[in-house]
Amino acid sequence: QVQLVESGGGLVQAGGSLRLSCAASGIYFSNYDMGWYRQAPGKQRELVAHISHMDSTNYADSVNGRFTISRSNAKNTVYLQMNSLKPEDTAVYYCHGVLWYSRSSEYWGQGTQVTVSS
Predict the structure, then answer these.
(1) Residues in Cβ contact with 13 at an 8 Å cutoff, skipping those fewer than 6 apart
(2) What percent of the chain has pLDDT over 90?
(3) Contact 30/100 with Cβ under 8 angstroms?
(4) Rounded to whole angstroms, how far apart are CA atoms 12 and 86?
(5) Can you give the three-state secondary structure of the chain, one letter per residue?
C-alpha cells in the first residue's frame, strides 16, 4: 500500500519558518519525482516546488528564494523548508510523487494545513 504522509504544518506568524516533511512508503522512492503543491480556500491547487529523481529543483515564482525543497532517498522523505512566510502562503500543502518514467503512476498525500498570521 502506497502512502505519502505529510507533517510539520501549523500556525506561524508572518516572517517565521516551518519545515514540512513527507514520508513515503510502498514505493521505490528514488525513482519518483516529488513535489509540493498548495491549495488556498477558493483557489486552484498550485505547484509550489518540485524536485526530480535526479535532484534538480524548480519553484513557483511566489516562493523562489524563500522556500527550499530537498529529499533524502535514504529516509524516503521529501522536505519543504519555508522561510519568511507571508499570510498569502496560508493553504493546505500536499505532497505529490510521480514515477519519472511512467507518469501514470502518481500519488498524493492527505495534506497539511499551514496558516500564517499577519
Answers:
(1) 116, 117
(2) 97
(3) no
(4) 9
(5) CCEEEEECCEEEECCCCEEEEEEEECCCHHHEEEEEEEECCCCCCEEEEEECCCCCEEECCCCECCEEEEEECCCCEEEEEECCCCHHHCEEEEEEEEECCCCCCEEECCCEEEEEEC
Under 8 Å between Cβ of 49 and 58 = yes
Where do we find the cell 535514504? 74
Q: What is the pLDDT of residues 55-97, one digit of tens each?
A: 999 999 999 999 999 999 999 999 999 999 999 999 999 999 9
Summarize the confidence of residues 38-49 as an average pLDDT: 97
Amino acid in the structure at residue 91:
A
Amino acid at 32: Y
